[in-house]
Every structure is written in C-alpha cells, then in structure tokens.
Amino acid sequence: MKEEIHIFGAGITGLFLAYHHVKRGDLVTLYEENNTLGGVIGTKTVKEGLVEQAANGILLTNDIKFMLDDIGLTPLYPKKASKRRYFFINKKLSQFPISILDGTKLIYTIFLKKLKFHPNLNFEEWSNDTFGLSVTKNIIEPALGGIYGTRCKELHADTIFSKWDGSGTSTIFKEIIKNKKKSYGTVSFANGMGDLVSHLVSYLKPKIKIQTGISLSSISQMENLKGSVRICISLKNLVPILGNSLNPEETPNLLTISTITRFGETRLTQKPCFGVLFGKEEGVRALGVLCNSDIFDGRVKDNFHSETWIYPKLDGFSSEKEIEFILESDRAMITKKKEKAKAIYKTTWEGVFPAYDRNLFLCNQKFDQMETNWKKNGLDIQFFGNYRRGIGLRSIFETTMP
Ligand SMILES: Cc1cc2nc3c(=O)[nH]c(=O)nc-3n(C[C@H](O)[C@H](O)[C@H](O)COP(=O)(O)OP(=O)(O)OC[C@H]3O[C@@H](n4cnc5c(N)ncnc54)[C@H](O)[C@@H]3O)c2cc1C
Prior knowledge:
Protein name: Protoporphyrinogen oxidase
Strand order of the largest sheet: 7-6-14-15-16-13-17
Pfam family, one: NAD_binding_8
Number of helices: 14
Strand content: 15-25%
CATH topology of the largest domain: FAD/NAD(P)-binding domain
CATH class of the largest domain: Alpha Beta
Bound molecules: flavin-adenine dinucleotide
Structural class: alpha/beta
Largest sheet: 7 strands, mixed
C-alpha cells in the first residue's frame, strides 16, 4: 500500500530518502527551507576549474551503482596513480608510517584481540590502549582527523563504530566482515558532486511534491501531519527545535570546518597521489589535503594542479591574506619551498557536523527513545542524517534505505 511520507530537509540525506521511497511507490513530499536543494553538497565552476563545496566523492557500492544508473549518472572513476596515499609524520611523507614490529602488532589486534569500548575513554586513550601509541599517533590520529574534522581526543570509539559489537566478545576483523559490502572505491562525476544533486533532483521532480521555502520549526508541526515524517535537517538546526528535550550531556558538540581549494602551477608531492593526512604534532594546522587533479580528470583547466585543504575552526584568522598565509606555510612544510598560488577559494561551514563523541552517542540514544515513544503513540517519526549512523554519503545512502 502507498504510504504518505513527509521529508523535512533536502540535503543529500533527504534526497536519498526521497529516492528510496519513490522506488517503493510511496507518496513523497519534500520540504526545504532554502530555495536550493542538496544542502552542503555542490560544485562551483571557477575559471581555473572545479571547486567542491563539501564532499569530493562517494564510496561506490552495488546499491549506489544501481541508483546512479537509475538517475542517468555515470560515475567518474579515480586515476590509477591516486591509489598512493601519504601520511606526514616526523616532518616526512610516508605511505606506511609505522615499523614492521608495530605493523605485526596491529595485525594481531585486528584479528585476535577482543574489541571492547570504554565509555570513559576518549578515542585517543582507547586507541592507545587497543592499538598502541605508535599506530594511534602515526596512522589512526591522521586518518580520523581527515574524516571526522577534528582530533582523536574529541572523538569516541562507540560513536564512530556504532554498528560494531564492542562488548568484548568480537574482534575488529569479525566486525569488518559482518558490516562489509563490496565497494569499488571513491567516485565523483564529470562536473563534480553537484551532478549527483542535479540528477537526483531531475529524477525526483516529476515523481514527488517539492516545497521550498518551508521550515520545520516545532515538534508539534511534525506530530500534526498525516502520514510518516522523516527529519533530515542538519543537526545544528534540529537541536533548537527540540528545545529542552536534550539534557546537557546529550547535546551534540558541533564542529566548524573550512576547506580551501588551491590552484597552483606545481604538484604538492613528487608523485601523483590521493592526498596527505597530517599527524597532530607536525606543526601543520590542516587536518588533511586532497590532490583533486591527481584523483579525477576534468578538475582543472590550463595544466593547473588543484588541492583541497581541510581545516578545523581557524580561530583568530579571518582575512583572506591570513588564511592564505596559513595554507602556504602548511604547504611549504611538505614542498620545502614557497610558491604563490594562482587562486584560492575558501568555504566555511559553521556547525556542519557533530563531533563523534560521547555526547553524540547519548544524543542518538535519546533520538532512538523519542522514535520509540512516537511509535507507541501511533506516530511514525524518524531522524536521519550524518549524525545517526555514519558521516559519509555511502552510510547515509544505506541508512536511508527503508
Ligand atoms: C567539507 C566537507 C567534506 C566532506 N567530504 C565528504 C566526502 O568526500 N565523502 C563523503 O562521503 N562525505 C563527505 N562529507 C560529508 C557529507 O557531505 C555530509 O555528511 C552530507 O552532505 C550531509 O548531508 P545532509 O543532507 O545530512 O545535511 P545538509 O547538507 O546539512 O542538509 C540539510 C538540509 O536541511 C535543510 N534544513 C535545515 N534546517 C531546516 C528546517 N528547519 N526546515 C527545513 N529544511 C531545513 C538545509 O537547508 C539543507 O538543505 C563532507 C562534509 C564536509 C562538510
């Protein structure tokens, strides 16, 4: 039977959810407070090439392949050379920044050590305990910083691995296998990630009702709607709507992220690569850098090289000049020389996603409880987004599948 579904928020979460419900034959209305759809995802074309506003790629799985086919979008596969990934540790670039002994211990931990989360340990403490100091400092800290937009001491293992059994009975290997789906690596599209939004919108427009300029502003507004309600607005805008439903320890800590896309004449590293991740004591303010033109074709014009640098909140630095200075100082740590950029483009997202910490874990427990209480009262209201079961687009696609 056709269900009536009201989706609030037309970022990628709302668009994916609308897509899944259309495939089920449901009657969908999508409400968005802005006049544009896609949320933080979008691609700007500038005279030097493409500038992504948020996500640079999506992890391709069979389900996502099927959806792309359905909406008439061809994935753009990465270049072979982008398989190379670097860590910047002890002021040097390295593809494998730990010793053979530490590598062996890591393999032992993954296959044999029982996985146990500790609510009182932050990710850095838990990781030191589980994997040892060297693996934490040289691999885990840089890798997580680049994905979660902050340092490990601001994160929590049970929030990051929310789908894993951390009760002390399973191993990391077993949990990876349990949750594994065949993946074909990260892909983008000919005109960047904006293509994903525009194709989804073109596909959905004739099949659903889209109402822009409509805001979700209160809990009673959703409780009074006929049909099921799906909340896909950003957590930053959701928290004030929930008023005092969240206790202080359940209130998420929101992060501010800046990305700077830099066009220049020389490559960052001698050989092409996907990018570089930075350890926290390397004197570099950036969390990571993606070498866009080494990853995908069509990102630049006129033989430029394009890089996107990812920064946590840059307190005290605001003018273009100051930001350019930070970027070029960070870059010179790797290249060992000063070079002027052809152009830089900065995007700042205030409170764009939450720290994956203990507060978020408790916040999600509260959301589960609210959903159950609504259900008991005959209401089908659910929360979806990058704060629920994973930050990346692939997780969002999978969790929005009905
Ligand atoms: C810099 C950066 C780089 C990233 N890189 C990657 C990457 O390479 N790969 C990857 O997989 N992921 C990446 N991500 C993560 C991914 O882009 C986000 O998790 C995802 O786009 C979030 O989508 P969303 O729809 O949940 O939220 P949003 O994009 O924030 O969308 C929320 C929507 O709700 C609307 N809205 C808000 N309040 C209301 C209201 N009250 N009523 C109605 N509508 C409302 C907003 O206008 C918006 O359209 C990155 C994120 C950032 C910031």
